[in-house]
Here is the input.
Amino acid sequence: MSTGPTLAKTVWTQADFDQMSWHDNEVHAIAIEPALPEPGRLLLDIDYIVQWVPPQAPSRLISFWICPATLVFDPAWDLTTDIDLRG
Here is the structure.
């Protein structure tokens, strides 16, 4: 039984962007923090997929090691979005 992946660090920054995978990370919450008179911050609470775990035969189900994370975009301005609240 695996104890899980070993993380290289606990805080990742913009410099680490190319090393990270953003495929299938689920967004749970969005917040905008005002910081007048400057643009505020955009925060996204996500389940970050640290590692995909291949299935053990005969199963074909993939598992994941997931870590709660908050993405912070500081400053954030001129935001445009199209959110589908139906699905």
